[in-house]
C-alpha cells in the first residue's frame, strides 16, 4: 500500500516572513529607553538569528558597554514585550510564500516551524498571516533548546507525527543548516533572508517562488508500507 510521506519544517524570520522592520523597531524602543543609540535595519540584520538573548547582547555591545551578567535575559524580556505588542505590524511574507504553503499542504506535505524567537510572537504572527491551518506545529526558542541544537527540530518532526519518509528543514542561515546537519535532516537554504550558507553545500534558492515550485515538483516521498507488494 502506497502513501505520500513528507514533512517540511521551516525557520520563520528571514525564511517565510520578512520581520526585520518589526524587529528593528522593537529593539530600538528598548535601546532608546536605556539611552542607547538606535540601530539601522542593516545593522540589525547582522545581529539576528540566535534568539532574543543573543540579539540584545549583540545590540548592547554594538551601542556601548556590553550587557552585564544576567542583564541580557532581562533586556530580552523587555524586547519581547515590545515585539509581541504587534508582531505582524510591519512584517511581510516573502513573495509567493502564502500560495506556496497552501500548495504544499494540498500535495500532502505536513509543515511546521522551528524558530529561536519567542513562541507567543511566532504563533501570533502565523495566526495573523492566516497560515495556522497549514502550519500545525511551532517549536520556539523559549520552550526548549535553541538552534543549532538539533533537539528543537527533532521535537517539531515528532509533533508533526513524522515517520520514515522525506524530512526537510528550510532556513536562511548557517545556524539553520548546522541544525539540519546535526539532526540528520535534509537541508535547503533560502538566500533571500538575513543570513549566509557559510561553507555548507546544500540545495539553495534565491527566489522563494522557485523554491516552492521545486517543492511542488519533487513532492513528498512515496512510501510503501512493510509487507505490501511494490507496484
UniProtKB/TrEMBL annotation:
Cellular component per GO?
Answer: cytosol
Any one GO MF annotation of this record: phosphoglycolate phosphatase activity
EC number(s) in its UniProt entry? 3.1.3.18
| UniProt record, GO biological process | DNA repair
**Pathway(s) it belongs to:** Organic acid metabolism; glycolate biosynthesis; glycolate from 2-phosphoglycolate: step 1/1
What is any Pfam family matched here? HAD_2
Give the catalytic activity.
Answer: 2-phosphoglycolate + H2O = glycolate + phosphate
Q: Member of which family? A: Belongs to the HAD-like hydrolase superfamily. CbbY/CbbZ/Gph/YieH family.
Q: What is this protein called?
A: phosphoglycolate phosphatase
- What is the source species? Verrucomicrobia subdivision 6 bacterium BACL9 MAG-120507-bin52
Amino acid at each position: 500500500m502506497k502513501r505520500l510521506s513528507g514533512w517540511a519544517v521551516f525557520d520563520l524570520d528571514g525564511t517565510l516572513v520578512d520581520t526585520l522592520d518589526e524587529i528593528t523597531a522593537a529593539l530600538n524602543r528598548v535601546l532608546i529607553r536605556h539611552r542607547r543609540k538606535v540601530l539601522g535595519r542593516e545593522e540589525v540584520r547582522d545581529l539576528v538569528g540566535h534568539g532574543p538573548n543573543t540579539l540584545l547582547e549583540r545590540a548592547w555591545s554594538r551601542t556601548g558597554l556590553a550587557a552585564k551578567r544576567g542583564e541580557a535575559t532581562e533586556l530580552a524580556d523587555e524586547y519581547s514585550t515590545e515585539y509581541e505588542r504587534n508582531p505582524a505590524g510591519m512584517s511581510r511574507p516573502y513573495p509567493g510564500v502564502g500560495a506556496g504553503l497552501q500548495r504544499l499542504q494540498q500535495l500532502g506535505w505536513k509543515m511546521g516551524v522551528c524558530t529561536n524567537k519567542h513562541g507567543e510572537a511566532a504563533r501570533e504572527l502565523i495566526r495573523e498571516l492566516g497560515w495556522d491551518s497549514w502550519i500545525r506545529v511551532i517549536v520556539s526558542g523559549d520552550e526548549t533548546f535553541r538552534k543549532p541544537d538539533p533537539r528543537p527540530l527533532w521535537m517539531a518532526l515528532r509533533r508533526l507525527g513524522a515517520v520514515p519518509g522525506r524530512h526537510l528543514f528550510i532556513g536562511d542561515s548557517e545556524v539553520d543548516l548546522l541544525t539540519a546537519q546535526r539532526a540528520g535532516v535534509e537541508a535547503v537554504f533560502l538566500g533571500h533572508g538575513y543570513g549566509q550558507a557559510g561553507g555548507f553545500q546544500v540545495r539553495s534558492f534565491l527566489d522563494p517562488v522557485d523554491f516552492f515550485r521545486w517543492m511542488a515538483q519533487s513532492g513528498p516521498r512515496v512510501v510503501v508500507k512493510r509487507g505490501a507488494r511494490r507496484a
